[in-house]
Amino acid sequence: MVFQKKSFQIHSEDDNNTARDLQGESGGGRKMFAYENPSLSLSGDSLKTGSTVDFQGSRDFIFQGNEGKKDTLPWLKQKASSKLTKKTLYKRIPVLGWAPKYDKAAAVGDILAGVTVGLMVIPQALAYSGIAGLPPQYGLYGSFIGAIVYIFFGSCKDVPMGPTAISALLTFQSIKGMGPEHAVLLCFFTGLVQFVMGIFGLGFLIDFISGPVSSGFTSAVALIILTSQVKDILGVHAPGSVFTEIWKNIFQDIHNTNAWDTCLGIACIIVLLVMRVVGQMKIGPSKGELSAFQKCFNKSLWLLATARNAIIVIVCGFIGYALYDGTSPLTLIGAVPAGLPSLQPPPFGGYNRIENNTEVHVPFVQMMANLSTGIIVTPLIGLLETIAICKAFSDGKPVDATQELIAIGLANIANSFVHAFPGAGALARAAVNNSSGVKTPLGGLYTGILVILALLFFTPFFYYIPKAALAAIIIAAVIFMVEVRVVKPMWRSKKSDLFLGVCTFVACLVLPLEVGILVGIGLNVLFILYHAARPKISIERLTTSRNTEYLMITPDRCLIFPSTDYVRNLVTKHSIRQGIPVVIDCSHIYGADYTAATVVETITKDFALRNQPLFFYNLKPSVSAVFEGLSPQDFVVYYDHDQLDDLLEKQNAKKTDTNNIV
Questions:
Q1: Which of 1, 254, 424, 630 is such that its CA lies 20 to 30 A from the CA of 490?
Q2: Is the pLDDT of residue 56 over 50?
Q3: How confident is the model at residue 511 (pLDDT cuts 50, 70, 90)?
Q4: Are 504 and 519 within 8 A, CB to CB?
Q5: Among candidates 334, 478, 340, 363, which has minimal Cα distance to 420?
Q6: What are the two backbone dihedrals, phi and then psi, of residue 494, each rounded to the nearest 5 degrees?
Q7: 8 A C-beta contact, residue 571 and residue 603
């Protein structure tokens, strides 16, 4: 049966189940399959048969009269009580969930993993400080407090909070050589932005950074970092923050190459790569039980490869010490202040610096202006790095981006009080953390303790570490960040995605990094808008059960403002050319907007003027509500293919009656 809509308003909890929502029972026990707009001309001869029926839809969101008015205070109390629950508390402070179940087995795994990651993070922190353009101690300052804070708020056991190559490069490009004070302030606002985003649930923003954009960005960052370390391998002076600028300066100063630094750096890179390969070697059968000796030998190889950075630093440190006699043929990192950093807030009141032997005060507002877009880009990229780790080691479990924002935000805020630059989760250290058998985020405590011990007792030794050794550690790590492996699958899958990745890659190389990533995101949004503006539309000439020909037009996606004119022109063109009744299959239209409603109103008027029948099939209730907002004339919807013949006959009868009246 069909019915005439007299006061049609649908509010459905499940728009995807159209049959359940729109074929509900009427007052007389009838089934409802179609309706006409109440303003349909000659609606007295409606499609309705039998008595008038009213649609009985979900009333969960319909408020009528005074019943719809709610006092604000009880509503706020209800919202507060629904949020302030034990479940929410455990979700936002994850340590409350795993701490009561902590046992000796977990402690052993965490200690082993924490110490292993600590041996890895110390040389990396010293090296990443160089990428950020800061003294070496600032990397160590960001490697203990943040890791300890993450224990309480982090939701992923494998995330080792601390300095990363990408965050160091973003810091370098944001502070533009203006000193540690800018880096510390950037760290605070990076954490603040991340924390606020977490509070307001804005973790979805990283969804706008697609896979191709992320791959292009990461690959470009790897090449920029590698380029920035070439100057330390060669022992030349080559300032700059953009890929092309750094290489230009390297070639200008290449005649000052230090042979000692170059030889040591190349030798360290070779040794690091060989040790990496050795760590992947195993003896014994691939399937089957290993002997105790084989297990011990394989574990020793793995440990040797994992600690390769620390081994290189120690050996090269002794070489630097042996060659030092007041001066050194190698370029050393120099003195590193002993002890822990003083606990003090970031420079909210500005700071003083020396320019041309004159002390100049740099106000807070000027510092914020200097940091520019780095305050926005650095938090987003930090979240992207951390979420990548969580997904890689989640074992199929959902990742809470909101909680990770809160955790790394609070960690960066805490780091800013100990003079650190922004940090995030590092994928390489996370892999070591996971393979070392970490059980809970408490592994970060032992990493932090190891860094604290290094600051307290080993800083005099750091003086003799050659810069070329630290540069070799970075180069041997970042060359594997260039995602060449995704090019071939991306080309086979969708060539436009490869184009997007290449554009992001090139933009990040020739422009400042934050501008390059914004270019990639902008191009990605343009691609999305283009696809939204040009939906795929299938057009078929079909026949009803009574041999009446009609044109079936099926859009494949939502009808929103970028695509409305395109759809209208196509429908008008083919309907005039065919001159037969038209049915628009709305099965795939899950959303619409005001612009789409105006186009539907125009189309129905055009068809009525041509006396050409137009019907809408399987229109979702929520979409129908949008179209009904303008009360379009001759707007007919049906939900059963068998009803089409009845609708056509009824339309022909109306057309005949209209002609007789005329």
A1: 424
A2: no
A3: confident
A4: yes
A5: 340
A6: -155, 110
A7: yes
